[in-house]
Write a structure and sequence with these properties.
The protein has 196 residues and is of the alpha+beta class. It has 5 helices and 9 strands.
């Protein structure tokens, strides 16, 4: 089932999400609904807070990035094959090297800004079968995972841009929170906090 995506301004997007247990009610259905919702919105990642659930769960499928002509064949292969469910993830380490990339977000439609993130991470998590996993990620895979990880920490990519940039796009951000936009996918709007 395709679920509505919470827009900027919904308080759930600002909360630090809670861990879940393997007996979490209807978890398989929730994950399936998240895949459907993400693909319907042409996303590459979706975190549970974005569908109104303040739990430490997100999904990632970076295959759409494989069409980028600037990628070499090894990076393209990594991206095409990177489809995962992350439950109760913990980032164990990040490199000190920062890379800038233009990011967008399904909860903040029609806004894209450059965000600096670490180019390598090590992350520990449980998969959909609650099996322990540890991955070392770099490049676009690391970036997408960090973006979704931020969601379960109550952080949006717009929190990572400069106050000057935020000021420039403040009217757009306000319109999103008020629902004064046309979205190609179902969204829920609620003006619940002041945009700074």
């Amino acid at each position: 089932m395709i679920l509505p995506i919470m827009a900027l301004g919904n308080q759930v997007l600002k909360l630090k999400a809670k861990e879940i247990k393997n007996d979490h009610k209807n978890l398989d259905k929730l994950i399936q609904d998240m895949w459907e919702t993400m693909y319907n919105a042409n996303g590459v990642g979706l975190a549970a807070p974005q569908i109104g659930k303040s739990i430490r769960l997100f999904i990632v499928d970076t295959a759409p990035f494989a069409n980028d002509e600037e990628l070499d064949s090894s990076e393209r292969k990594k991206i095409i094959d990177f489809k995962k469910v992350f439950i109760n993830p913990v980032i164990l380490s990040k490199s000190s090297n920062l890379c800038s990339f233009t990011e967008g977000c399904l909860s903040v439609p029609d806004i894209r800004e450059n965000v600096k993130r670490e180019d390598k991470i090590v992350i520990h998590f449980l998969n959909e079968n609650f099996e322990k996993q540890t991955l070392e990620l770099d490049g676009l895979c690391a970036r997408v995972v960090q973006h979704e990880y931020d969601h379960i920490e109550g952080i949006l990519f717009t929190d990572k841009i400069s106050s000057f940039k935020r000021k420039i796009i403040s009217n757009k951000l306000k319109n999103i929170s008020l629902g004064k936009i046309d979205s190609p996918y179902p969204m829920l709007f609620k003006n619940t906090y002041e945009i700074k």
